[in-house]
Design goal:
Blueprint lengths: L2 H31 L4 E2 L3 E2 L14 E11 L3 H7 E2 L4 E2 L9 H6 L2 E6 L19 H9 L3 E3 L9 H14 L3 E3 L10 E5 L2 E10 L1 E4 L2 E4 L2 E2 L2 H4 L4 E2 L4 H17 L4 E7 L10 H13 L3 E5 L7 E7 L4 E2 L35 E7 L4 E3 L4 H4 L6 E12 L4 E19 L2 E8 L8 H6 L2 H15 L13
Parallel strand pairs: 3-6, 3-20, 6-7, 7-8, 10-14, 10-15, 15-16
Antiparallel strand pairs: 1-2, 3-21, 4-5, 9-10, 11-12, 12-13, 17-18, 17-19, 21-22, 22-23
Helix pairs in contact: 7-8
Length: 462
């Protein structure tokens, strides 16, 4: 190699060393400004300064449920249009539609069948399919089919009822098709809500199990959720299993509906109270119920971490589900307590013992019982904590309703009236002249459930 070549090589080596020195200087400066090892979740590991995890926003969920949706023969006549030879039930719900639609999840007890053929009222209900569509258009999401009229048209009628409700866009629970689960799960605002629904059985017919005098065939027994007082412990075991199964399939919140009680009694009996406590202890977060055709009181049940159920709030109440830190499938779980570790940890479970009739022809004129005209929009509002995976807050209120029936245009008219702040200006009440009857209904409900549970939409006491 010549002199010129050696000189070129020497200069090239010098440049390489220079670039290396410059690179190391830049790297050192960067290390002073930024941590060398940063984990996206754990922060500066080398410096021991973990980054604070970002809390997920809570989810607000509103649930509304109503009691018995019935169609007596006079209602069928009222909703029939002879010009089109069809039935239209949409007008029944025009005043309550906004309340129902605004709920994140709305449920109703469908106390009739859709068996096809000629519509009939009591004692064997069979309603036009258009009634299911009207319920969906009113804003309902879930149809509860477990009630004492579910077998009015036998097994085939029970099965077709499911078809009609589902075709209308409603989820169903309480009865099912072969191979389907005994519960329903619906997703709302990213949360999976499980629903279980049961009805009581009546006394057997000739030694056979029955519902409202309709004998349960072997096929129907396997596809109906029911309980009998004579074998209550066994049947409630099935209900508990349904709740456990729903949770195992991802249900984060569980609603239980129970069709029970003594007709026309305005206070819950011992069976209702005992079963409610059991179901709350099994892990139900909300309990809705009906059947008595009149309203009954509401209350909270409190489930402690050891499974003890109380009607009174403990001294150091923890609102809501308190489910943080434990497996939700155990049904009664403890959570984080911001006050002290020694405080009692509870789940707070709203119970509506009977939501009464939402719509029917039962009233003062037919039964000499004005309380059968009264119903409610049973409302529950809860906060779901995404970090702890539990209900952090839960509350309930009642918006009373009243069924107005009056003659106009040569036929009867039925409207569900919400007893809210718009009561005095309601056009239907002005036409029927029944404003004072509606106001009496409001005061009846106020006296029954108390002002503490009345919806903020209700006018104050006079």
């Amino acid at each position: 190699m010549g002199q010129r070549g050696r000189e070129t090589n020497r200069r090239s080596n010098q440049k390489s060393w220079l670039w290396l020195v410059l690179f190391l200087m830049v790297l050192a400066a960067g290390a002073l400004a930024f941590p060398l090892f940063v984990h996206p979740d754990k922060g500066d590991v080398a410096g021991g300064n973990p980054a604070k995890p970002q809390a997920l926003p809570p989810i607000q969920l509103s649930v509304t449920c109503v009691g018995d949706v019935m169609a007596h023969s006079t209602q069928l006549t009222a909703q029939y249009d002879s010009d089109t030879d069809s039935y239209d039930f949409n007008n029944n719900y025009i005043y309550v539609k906004d309340y129902i639609s605004q709920a994140d999840l709305a449920l109703c007890n469908v106390e009739t069948t859709f068996a096809g053929g000629a519509p009939t009222g009591y004692p064997l209900f069979n309603s036009p399919d258009s009634m299911a569509s009207a319920l969906r258009q009113a804003g309902f999401d879930v149809a509860l089919t477990s009630n004492n009229h579910m077998l009015d048209r036998g097994f085939d009628g029970m099965q077709r009822t499911l078809d009609v409700l589902r075709e209308a866009g409603l989820a169903t629970v309480g009865s099912r098709k072969e191979g389907e689960p005994r519960y329903a799960i619906t997703e709302v605002k990213g949360l999976k809500v499980g629903v279980v629904a049961y009805t009581y059985e009546t006394s057997g017919v000739n030694g056979q199990r029955s519902i409202n005098g309709s004998v349960m065939s072997d096929d129907s027994k396997a596809l109906i959720n029911s309980f009998a007082y004579g074998r209550l412990a066994e049947d409630l075991t099935h209900l508990k299993q349904d709740i456990d199964d729903a949770k195992a399939q991802g249900a984060q919140i569980v609603i239980a509906y129970l069709h029970w009680g003594e007709e026309y009694q305005r206070t819950p009996n011992e069976w209702q109270q005992s079963i409610a406590a059991e179901v709350a202890g099994y892990g139900a977060d909300i309990i809705f119920a009906s059947h008595t055709h009149v309203l009954q009181p509401v209350e909270y049940l409190y489930v402690a971490g050891d499974g003890t159920v109380s009607h009174e709030a403990p001294a150091a109440e923890v609102s809501g589900d308190a489910a943080a830190g434990q497996d939700a499938s155990d049904g009664v779980s403890a959570g984080e307590d911001s006050q002290s570790e020694a405080a009692v940890k509870v789940r707070k479970v709203p119970v509506f013992y009977s939501m009464g009739n939402f719509i029917s022809n039962q009233r003062a004129e037919t039964l000499n019982n004005r309380y059968t005209e009264q119903g409610m929009l049973a409302n529950v509002n809860l906060t779901w904590d995404q970090d702890t995976q539990g209900i952090s807050e839960i509350s309930m209120d009642v918006l009373p309703t009243w069924v107005d029936r009056y003659q106009s245009g040569g036929k009867q008219n039925y409207y569900i009236i919400p007893l809210d702040n718009a009561l005095n200006g309601n056009e239907t009440l002005a036409q029927s002249g029944h404003l004072n009857r509606a106001k009496q209904a409001l005061e009846d409900v106020r006296a029954l459930v108390g002002d503490e549970f009345l919806s903020p939409s209700c006018p104050p006491a006079q």
